[in-house]
């Protein structure tokens, strides 16, 4: 069993820096495309054999140090009672966006085993398949990120509806956040009970907030979720996209690992985060479209700067892009593993 | 003449904090909509009488402390030889994106008086109209921001083509940046000679870069442009969107004022920027969709935190949104002017 990933999460000594890539099972890989050519995206998420199959592809092809459950952050929004669709043009669409108290009241806090059994079945298959290989990461969207999709009804440019609710009716926003947070806690606890050995909260959109509003209206929910999950004795990773202005707050989240995007210098991030958490990141996914020299140089720069952190898990600063040549992803994993700490 | 704006740019003492709003002439105002109902956006930019008319609207209606030339950052890209269109759906579209050396070689460094005389005519009209009122700000897109549109052919989600060029062919990217920087210097110098009393460089997209790449591939062009412009003895404002990870670099730009977005705490920004520059910003434009209490509270929080800066010009962290109620913009200006420094 390659346990470098779990050790780095806890800040224990490792022989080499572990690496995995956000969206490592994805469109840039022809093996994934082959599976996707037979089923649509949501069916893939909901068919345990297939979801497990694509989860395993990057373990074998890239040689990464951790697997991450193949799923989508909006699955729990559907289980809460919303209508979820993925369209080629607009991406995810959630029908009847949540904007009123009665809409919030109608949302349920789902039982994962009842309403999302496929997620837990996928985890159970994966744990068997991954035995003596690498650990399995479960995940969920962080409450605010989920709230943006639920209030906007999909992706957004300026988050006008979310922020209008936050600024005009903070009580209503808080009610929705409570319900999503309870769902997230139940959902990740169930993933851990089914076998997930680490969980990651993806806060893809927290970075659109002022630090003041993030700290007051969003961060308490994050701390609450992490406090409950930590009792289940697996590492918790908290990833924030566009984190540069929020790291001084996020360091107090209670997470074992803070995942960071590429828009912040790794050395400065480590200094802000201090010695009580490990760090994950933070190569610009676009660098994998560059030359082997650029990939090597940027990777080493990050590894060198992260060497003063409590622990470091190498990753991209966001999901791998569909345009990425697979050989560049392989070269990245090799470069991380070959790096010798000074 | 209300010169609080010019004084704050230079860090001189002012009776009240000056305020203007990015995109203060815009769709949220019915007086603007009325002008736009008669002409398309590009025609408006290119018709000095009309461009001057909409420039003046917020001076009278909001009572802001500075006027900013009504124009678009892509006007010089058209003058360099590209085909520019604005579509309702996709926003700006630049035909035949620049991806090769021969495409770069075909671009010209335009003479502003020859190819964009309407910009200078608008400035000349405005200086007459604004006499004894408020100063006039000229502007241009910063070279990297212009490069993103020219390489992508319009707006972009992941900036894959820009970054591919930066990472695979930095020499080519540098060649393009040189040509855009020369254009920007000529363009802003002409604006100053025509009467602009301050110029702002808009770096709307610098924040998508790693600090490392920003510092090495983009920042030298910024410093070069600012160094030349400063010889013309008017204040230079350098605005960076998503600046949080870049401020420690931007502080060395040579600009008189650094404009910041709302994703960074004003107090932390001032500490990073130090005492040699003034700061501009940084209310989340979405806060103007909130309650009067939220607007007041957020405005005072920023004013208080910026009080330790060399100088402060209040502004939004990005352009005002079309959804903004005009009365909220007026209330914001009043709140800034009413604030008494402790």
Subunit organisation of the chains: homodimer
* Low-pLDDT sequence parts of chain A: none
Total of DSSP H or I helical runs spanning 4+ residues of chain A: 16
Q: Architecture of chain A in CATH?
A: Alpha-Beta Barrel
Topology of this protein?
2 copies of one chain form a homodimer.
Chain A lengths: L3 H7 L19 H7 L4 H6 L1 H15 L4 E2 L6 H5 L4 E4 L3 E4 L6 H6 L5 H4 L1 H13 L6 E6 L1 H10 L7 H9 L1 H25 L3 E6 L7 H20 L5 E5 L6 H4 L6 E4 L5 H8 L4 E6 L8 H15 L5 E5 L9 H13 L4
Parallel strand pairs in A: 1-4, 4-5, 5-6, 6-7, 7-8, 8-9
Antiparallel strand pairs in A: 2-3
Helix pairs in contact in A: 4-8, 9-11, 10-11, 11-12, 15-16
Could you walk me through the main structural features you see in this protein, from its secondary elements to its overall organization?
2 copies of one chain form a homodimer. Chain A has 342 residues and is α/β, with parallel strands linked by helices. The first copy, chain A, has one domain: TIM Barrel (Alpha-Beta Barrel). Helices cover 49% and strands 12% of the residues of chain A. The radius of gyration of chain A is 19 Å and the shape is globular. At the A-B interface, α10, α12 and α15 of A face α10, α12 and α15 of B.
Q: Brief description of this entry?
A:
The first copy, chain A, is α/β, with parallel strands linked by helices and 342 residues long. Chain A is built from 16 helices and nine strands. Chain A has one domain (22-276): TIM Barrel, CATH 3.20.20.210.
List keywords for this structure.
homodimer, 342 residues, alpha/beta, TIM Barrel, seven-stranded parallel β-sheet, two-stranded antiparallel ribbon, 16 helices, 49% helix
């Amino acid at each position: 069993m390659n346990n470098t990933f779990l050790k780095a999460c806890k800040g224990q000594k490792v022989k080499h820096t572990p690496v995995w890539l956000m969206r490592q099972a994805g469109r840039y890989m022809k093996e994934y495309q082959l599976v996707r050519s037979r089923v649509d995206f949501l069916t893939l998420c909901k068919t345990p054999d297939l979801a497990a199959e694509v989860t395993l592809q990057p373990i074998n092809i890239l040689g990464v140090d951790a697997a991450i459950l193949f799923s989508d952050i909006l699955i729990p929004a559907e289980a809460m009672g919303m209508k979820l669709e993925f369209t080629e043009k607009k991406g995810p669409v959630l029908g009847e966006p949540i904007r009123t108290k009665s809409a919030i009241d109608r949302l349920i806090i789902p039982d994962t085993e009842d309403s999302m059994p496929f997620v837990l079945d996928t985890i159970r298959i994966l744990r068997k398949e991954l035995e003596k290989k690498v650990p399995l990461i479960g995940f969920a969207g962080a409450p605010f990120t989920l709230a943006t999709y639920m209030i906007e009804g999909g992706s957004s440019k300026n988050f006008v509806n979310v922020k209008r609710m936050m600024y005009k009716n903070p009580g209503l926003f808080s009610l929705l956040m409570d319900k999503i947070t309870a769902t997230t806690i139940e959902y990740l606890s169930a993933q851990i009970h089914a076998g997930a050995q680490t969980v990651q909260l993806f806060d893809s959109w927290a970075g659109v907030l002022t630090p003041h509003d993030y700290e007051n209206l969003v961060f308490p929910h994050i701390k609450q979720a992490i406090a409950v999950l930590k009792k289940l004795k697996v590492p918790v990773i908290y990833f924030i996209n566009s984190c540069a202005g929020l790291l001084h707050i996020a360091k107090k989240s209670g997470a074992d690992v803070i995942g960071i995007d590429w828009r912040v210098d790794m050395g400065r991030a480590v200094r802000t985060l201090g010695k009580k958490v490990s760090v994950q990141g933070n190569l610009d996914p676009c660098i994998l479209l560059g030359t082997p020299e650029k990939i090597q140089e940027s990777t080493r720069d990050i590894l060198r700067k992260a060497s003063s952190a409590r622990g470091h898990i190498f990753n991209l600063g966001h999901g791998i892009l569909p345009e990425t040549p697979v050989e560049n992803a392989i070269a990245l994993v090799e470069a991380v593993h070959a790096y010798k700490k000074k």
